[in-house]
Amino acid sequence: MDQPDAFSARCPTRQILDRIADKWTVLLLGLLASRTMRFNELRRGVDGLSQKVLSQTLKSLERDGLVTRAAYPTVPVTVEYAITDLGRTLAATLEPLRLWAEGHMEAVEKARIDFDQRQQAAA
Amino acid sequence: MDQPDAFSARCPTRQILDRIADKWTVLLLGLLASRTMRFNELRRGVDGLSQKVLSQTLKSLERDGLVTRAAYPTVPVTVEYAITDLGRTLAATLEPLRLWAEGHMEAVEKARIDFDQRQQAAA
DNA sequence: CAGTATCCACGTCGATACTG
DNA sequence: CAGTATCGACGTGGATACTG
After folding, report:
1. Rg (CA), chain A
2. Has residue B1 got a pLDDT over 70?
3. Of the candidates A4, B26, B37, B66, which lies 20 to 30 Å from B81 by C-alpha distance?
4. Is residue A99 part of a domain?
């Protein structure tokens, strides 16, 4: 049987990589790794994330077995999102990514300025 | 001064996260981590990646200081893409992501089947 | 070989309004 | 509170053709 290989477009791994290598996935799993949260709590936790995309992303994460959704018949309804064991293993590999972005922000911004100046000089 | 915070839409970190949490970035840096490669070599190495998107992505990676581009005036022209030290630190955090996708592919696919069946049963 | 330029189909996203 | 439905603007991406 074939080895999983993300470099091959036909491998299901490719599609999974596309889903997990996603800004919102990184941030949402980052939040849920610390504790269970409600829908609007997540919405407030991730600035700039619309209700529609949050809803879509959570549904994908649930379908992929990364989070669970629990609805309680209170009035109004209460819904709790929790990370699964599988999701926790992913969150552990995603956290360094967020930390890299935060830690190397200045280096990247400097590189951009240098690059843009070289472009300017060439033109 | 503000702490970098990817959860805030205004922080530059967010934009950087958006660029690095990308399928093609993961795969391209994965290839370049092992050795310097030519344009068409990268194209062949990443199945399903169009010439246009490869070109765009490489330009972004170069601008962000993650890869370097060296053109040699041969006929026809030879262009070598190499990873930088900064890029290497990112590649090191991206590789676990690709490995996670490859390693947990079956678990995710199983979760999807289960989820879809529950949806079916509910409808 | 290593791109760029152009066109267009497509999906994604935000905004808005509505519901149990 | 936690969504869904609809719409329209937008950008992304593929296919194709062309260039130094």
Report:
1. 19
2. no
3. A4
4. no
Q: Is B20 among the domain residues? A: yes
Whether the beta carbon of A75 falls within 7 A of nucleic chain C: the reply is no
Number of domains in chain A: 1
Residue B74 falls within a domain, yes or no? yes
Calpha distance A15→A21 (Å, rounded): 10
pTM: 0.95
The CA distance from B51 to A79, in Å, is 44
Residues in chain A with CB shorter than 8 Å from the CB of B10 are 47
Chosen for mutation from A1, A64, A108 (greatest number of chain B CBs closer than 10 Å) is: A108
- Contacts with A111 from chain B: Cβ below 8 Å: 63-66, 86
pLDDT band, very low/low/confident/very high, at A122 (cuts 50, 70, 90): confident
Q: What are phi and psi of A4, to 5 degrees?
A: -60, 135
Residue B65 lies in a domain: yes
Please report, for the domain that includes residue A36, its CATH number: 1.10.10.10
Residue of chain B whose Cα is closest to the Cα of A95: B93
